[in-house]
């Protein structure tokens, strides 16, 4: 009786990339594209397999077009939209949106804080009677880069590692980064609106942005945490919420509370904190 | 005569000291596929397969130089013998690119060498900043260099840090150099990831040269401190940068539905620099 020896441990050797495909949601762009074999037809003439050190390996994660990216961005603002939870995942998560959302956010924080400081300086002292020279603190730019990238990329990667360590959920790291990146989209218009010189309005706008982006994160992350067998894993959401509060406060105090020469309108409630810093 | 001399050298020993060795880009397929380069005279002819490409190409250029004026696909002739074309060959498994400058560079005075390099930077600058001049041909850019972008980047950094208050001039210089270096890197990688057919260093080179208008704006704002002058000048030079670099991206054959995705990072990248000029 003849039999053919088969590789019993084939699944074990396929590595984590393939194991994640068990979610059957086809959220992994690489797997999805290899299944359909064409993607959206943009890379039809490219070799299909390449190592992770080659640029071609990452091309499936950038297989988006303008309309799709814009749609994914504004869907994060609309909690009642039917595809609020999965808009950034269909047909597959991308990395273009998250990266450029975060980069635009950094730029908007830089633009807003520098413009706001000069406007509020001009409003508080129209004729520049004191003869003060406005100096913009360029250190804020590098602070913004560090803060935004570490929150928008570092936190989801760490969370993904932690969840893998705990063995929770079928969640790809691309998906995690995508949730965080698109989730911070609301800060871009808010940063631009926060050029207004009224501290109360800035606090309200920051609060709105905090709620919108926080709700998007919770709505997307909690279902993943809830799949864990151990109930305490769900408490991670509290940690994430605390981080989000901290980041919102950092934005407000570092970038939207920038008064070199005095202020206008009602008093800023954060003034004691800022002077303490 | 110099050329014939060089030919002789190359025929006996392929690796002469007069040819510079540059590690080739890993995506030579892309460059060959760019339609603007497929002049019939430049398509490798059947009698020069693979290894003998370097030797066979120079006479071919001489032959096709006459038809260059008709087709307009070959860049501005530098020495009357066509633009210097990099040659590819593999030495010991490593693909290298030899660049033939058109003259014997071994025993020329150093002033001539530097002069020729500056001239090449100048020609590329003109080509990048005013693309219609060469009917959109990017032949000169195949012979990319990073000296031009480096000079422009340092110039911008110095101009801005001179303007900045003394306590911040160092951090301004640092951030300008870092933004330009990382920004052009990211934007080029971005264009490749979106499926643009562009060689990596060629992209870096073109985007680096596109910074030049911002240098002009920074120079103007060094001497003119009126906000009514600086803002329009900076915005105009920003628009110029974007126009020049979009012209470059046009040749990379990115699909229409996603051209905006490739242009947006450029807008952002140059606007950060323009904004730094404005708020000085």
UniProtKB/TrEMBL annotation, chain A:
GO biological process assignments: vesicle-mediated transport
InterPro entries: Yip5/YIPF1/YIPF2
Domain of life: Eukaryota
GO CC, one annotated term: Golgi apparatus
Single GO molecular function: small GTPase binding
Coiled coil segments of this chain: none
Protein known as: Yip1-domain-containing protein
Species annotation: Dichomitus squalens
Automatic annotation (TrEMBL), chain B:
Keyword Transmembrane belongs to the record: yes
A biological process term (GO) from this entry: endoplasmic reticulum to Golgi vesicle-mediated transport
Record localization: Golgi apparatus membrane; Membrane
Compositionally biased residues, Acidic residues: 23-33
Compositionally biased region (Basic and acidic residues): 1-11
Any one cellular-component term (Gene Ontology): Golgi membrane
Keyword Lyase recorded: no
Keywords: Membrane, Transmembrane, Transmembrane helix
Start and end residues of each stretch annotated as Disordered: 1-91
PANTHER family: GOLGI MEMBRANE PROTEIN YIP1, PROTEIN YIPF6
Name recorded for this polypeptide: Protein YIP
């Amino acid at each position: 009786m003849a039999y053919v020896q088969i590789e019993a441990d084939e699944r074990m050797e396929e590595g984590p990339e393939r194991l994640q495909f068990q979610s059957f949601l086809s959220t992994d762009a690489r797997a999805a594209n290899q299944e359909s074999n064409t993607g959206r037809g943009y890379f039809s003439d490219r070799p299909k397999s390449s190592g992770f050190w080659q640029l071609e390996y990452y091309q499936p994660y950038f297989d988006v077009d303008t309309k799709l990216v814009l749609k994914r961005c504004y869907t994060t603002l609309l909690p009642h939209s039917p595809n609020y939870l999965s808009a950034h995942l269909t047909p597959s998560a991308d990395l273009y949106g998250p990266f450029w959302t975060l980069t635009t956010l950094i730029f908007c924080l830089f633009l807003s804080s520098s413009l706001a400081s000069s406007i509020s300086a001009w409003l508080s002292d129209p004729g520049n009677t004191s003869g003060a020279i406005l100096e913009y603190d360029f250190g804020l730019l590098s602070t913004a880069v560090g803060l935004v990238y570490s929150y928008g990329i570092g936190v989801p990667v760490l969370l993904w590692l932690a969840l893998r360590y705990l063995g929770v959920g079928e969640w790809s790291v691309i998906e995690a980064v995508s949730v965080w990146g698109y989730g911070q989209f609301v800060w871009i218009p808010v940063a631009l609106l926060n050029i207004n010189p009224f501290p109360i309005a800035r606090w309200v706008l920051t609060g709105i942005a905090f709620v919108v982006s926080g709700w998007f994160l919770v709505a997307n992350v909690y279902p993943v945490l809830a799949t864990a067998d151990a109930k305490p894993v769900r408490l991670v959401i509290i940690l994430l919420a605390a981080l989000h509060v901290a980041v919102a406060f950092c934005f407000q105090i570092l970038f939207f509370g920038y008064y070199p020469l005095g202020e206008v309108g009602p008093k800023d409630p954060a003034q004691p904190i800022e002077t303490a810093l | 005569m110099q050329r014939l001399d060089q030919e002789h050298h190359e025929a006996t020993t392929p690796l002469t000291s007069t040819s510079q060795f540059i590690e080739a880009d890993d995506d030579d397929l892309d460059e060959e596929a760019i339609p603007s380069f497929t002049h019939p005279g430049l398509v490798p002819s059947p009698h020069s397969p693979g290894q003998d490409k370097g030797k066979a190409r120079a006479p071919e250029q001489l032959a096709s130089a006459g038809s260059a004026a008709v087709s307009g696909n070959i860049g501005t002739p530098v020495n009357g013998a066509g633009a210097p074309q990099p040659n590819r060959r593999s030495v010991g498994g490593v693909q290298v690119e030899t660049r033939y400058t058109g003259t014997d560079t071994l025993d020329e005075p150093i002033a001539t060498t530097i002069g020729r390099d500056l001239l090449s930077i100048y020609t590329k600058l003109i080509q990048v900043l005013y693309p219609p001049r060469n009917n959109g041909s990017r032949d000169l850019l195949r012979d990319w260099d990073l000296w031009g972008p480096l000079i422009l980047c340092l110039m911008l950094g110095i101009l801005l840090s001179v303007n900045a208050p003394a306590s911040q001039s160092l951090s301004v210089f640092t951030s300008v150099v870092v933004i330009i270096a990382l920004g052009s890197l990211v934007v080029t990688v971005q264009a490749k990831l979106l499926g643009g057919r562009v060689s990596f260093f060629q992209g870096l080179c073109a985007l680096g040269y596109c910074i030049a208008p911002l240098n002009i704006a920074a120079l103007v704002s060094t001497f003119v401190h009126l906000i009514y002058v600086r803002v329009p000048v900076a915005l105009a030079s920003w628009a110029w940068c974007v126009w020049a670099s979009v012209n470059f991206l046009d040749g990379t054959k990115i699909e229409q539905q996603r051209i905006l995705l490739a242009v947006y990072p450029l807008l952002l990248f140059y606007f950060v620099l323009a904004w730094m000029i404005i708020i000085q």
